[in-house]
Amino acid sequence: MTNNNPQDSLQRFLFDDTDIRGEITTLSATYQDLLANQQYPPQVALLFGEFIAAVSLISTMLKDTGMITIQARGDGPVTTVMAECSQGNKLRGIVRGDFDNLGNISGLHELLGTATLAITIEPEGKERYQGVVALDGENLSQCLEYYFHQSEQLPTKIKLASNADSASGMLIQQLPSSIDAEKSADDWQTLSVLFETLSSVEQLELSHNDQLYRLFHEQQLRLFEPQPMAFSCSCSRQRTESALISIGRDEVVEMSVEQGLIMITCEFCSQQYRFTSRDISELFDPEQPPLH
Ligand SMILES: [Zn+2]
Fold first, then answer.
1. Structural domain of residue 68, as residue ranges?
2. Tell me: the pLDDT tens digits for 245-257?
3. Alpha-carbon gap, residue 146 to 87, rounded angstroms
């Protein structure tokens, strides 16, 4: 399932004569596609929106093909929030937990309890890298800023916003400096102060151009072409077969005998994969003729 709404995009920007770069993203149809497969209460959907916007923003950390994942795990009613971006523009994600008795509980800490935030970068064919920080900032933006400070040693500012319709994010980051240290510090100070004035309403209602103009119209800024972002699930019959094989022959055969057939539903996109007992015997004994 893929949506190519051109409004769903990630755009890079640069400030001339500085070592500061930025990213801006808005996800509407993609966010709706991700929610359509799930039954999240509104406050869980809002939290999920922030994670999806966040993974879109930081997907440029992946220099080549591969996958980047942001995952929070906690001891609250929400136990896991996971958002993943692969091949630079394919987003998927999931929230797990007990949503039945949430009542008025909302917000990062109330929903997740004591939690950690892991960022995993898996470049294709190369070693995976994972950084973990405690999820103890005021909000997800602050936790991610802390992550960049700790793991990448890069001064970073992030703002995330979500409502029922869309999710949006902006990031500015100072790269290792090749310019005068004093000018570099001044540039960062000036742009950070302007960045902090961006409101959630502006993030959710203004175009990328208008948000950047609102904040930085006195700076020399170059905005690059939008890169389309879309919901796309990486599940497949082959991957589902591998998962069955990893469960083990005895257990899978027992399941197929008890139930007649095995239905596996992808929790990300609700795609169903159906395995008859013949499929199962062929899966475990490809050389053997089918049992019946
Ligand atoms: Zn799927």
1. 9-231
2. 998 888 888 888 7
3. 26
